[in-house]
Amino acid sequence: MDNIENILSEANRCLNCKKPLCVSSCPINTRIPDFIYEIKNNNLKKAYEILFENNIMSDICSNVCPYIEYCTGNCVRGIKGLPVQISKLEKFVNSWAKENNIEYSYKTEKKNGIKIAIIGSGPAGIECAKELAINGFDVTIYEKESDIGGLLTYGIPGFRLPRDITIKLTDRIKKLGIKIITKTELGKDISIEFLKKKYTAIFIGIGAGIPSEYYLTDKSCKTIYKSDYILREYNAKRVINNLGDVIIIGGGNVAIDSARAVLRMGAKSSTIVYRRNKEKMPAIEEEVKLGIKEGVKIVYNTNVLGAELEKDSLKQIKCIKTEIIEDNVVNIDNSEFYINADSIVFAIGLKPDRELILKEKININKNGLIIVDEKYMTNIDGVFAGGDVIQNKSTVCMAINNGRNASKYIVEYCKNKK
User: For residue 336, what is the domain's CATH number?
Assistant: First the structure.
């Protein structure tokens, strides 16, 4: 769908349900029937305003949101046929606004003089900062990298989320009067104790930045990589030479992104090895199809047991076939086999920096996630948290939901402090 005729045809398939399941299944309650209604009436500017009034990252979500899990997957049209392609409609509206230089302007309340610190500028931190700025708070974002966005900037490759979109997000944040201090890291340049002396409340949205991996060999191997390194190098337009035949361990969006990125870096081949079956693979189906179209191979029901080296160079990986029994992955006896490999990329998930969080005297659970109460507050008074740092496998829209909800409780907290 790349022209207005196709868009109108798709929009007119919307039934405008009285109780739209697409809205109730969206973590940020996007007014889906309302913006589609405006498309039907060829009022794209109004559709754009509806989207951005609710979500400052609408153009980002329309590119990366797992819509099959949320809105599109719950569309009533999908019961007996094809669901309405909501993300494509949203993407079209945002592209139209960009082409016509239309920007949504947020109305902000008069400054109240209350200072709030946001640590981390991923989706949760940005949303929390935006909501607080609209409510008149003096907000400062602290970001350890040179640019804001977190995973949006450093973790999602440009072929899935164009870089100009994240750059535009920075401009929107600044227009709200939010201060941005980059290259400033929690635990190194600032601490919770230091910030509490300057700010009435603090929101922690540092995400999950430590890649998970497991033991493959007791020998030193320079060609075993982590997904964050691969994607960071790709986004920085740096090439990792001599990747050869690459094996990516994992089955989520990061695995697909890594597999597509290494091909663009010149890898001879790119093969994803996933321990579950195709139906259980969590990556967005459309992204999987694009990866396969580009040459990515996928081996399902397979566990990688180890890596075999020859003179410090990776030669092959040892694998074993698996089966799913009561949703558990079970290795099949005597089914070992080998796959040739020159490089390996771990893409089996990210976890929060446990040592950093404990150093700041913040309580965590057994998975290393920050423990928060029903109001998103940590064990430290006035310190809140949200996003990947408090929940496993958070999506962008779930992180936005966290940031939005936390902002409401921060407002409540600050009012009670007066």
Answer: 3.50.50.60
Is residue 167 a part of any domain in this protein?
Answer: yes
Q: Rounded to two decimals, what is the model's pTM?
A: 0.93
Tokens 């797992």 belong to which residue?
66
C-alpha–C-alpha distance, residues 121 and 178, integer Å: 12
The pLDDT profile of the chain, 418 residues, written as one tens digit per residue, is 468 899 999 999 999 999 999 999 999 999 999 999 999 999 999 999 999 999 999 999 999 999 999 999 999 999 999 999 999 999 999 999 999 999 999 999 999 999 999 999 999 999 999 999 999 999 999 999 999 999 999 999 999 999 999 999 999 999 999 999 999 999 999 999 999 999 999 999 999 989 999 999 999 899 999 999 999 999 999 999 999 999 999 999 999 999 999 999 999 999 999 999 999 999 999 999 999 999 999 999 999 999 999 988 999 999 999 999 999 999 999 999 999 999 999 999 899 999 999 999 999 999 999 999 999 999 999 999 999 999 987 799 999 999 999 999 999 999 988 6
How many CA atoms does the CB half-sphere of 200 hold within 13 Å?
20
Asked if residue 106 belongs to a domain, the reply is: no
Q: Are residues 282 and 360 in the same domain?
A: no
Instruction: Read off φ and ψ for residue 50, nearest 5 degrees.
Output: -65, -45
Query: Do 236 and 157 fall within a single domain?
Result: no
Rounded to whole angstroms, how far apart are CA atoms 258 and 248? Answer: 7
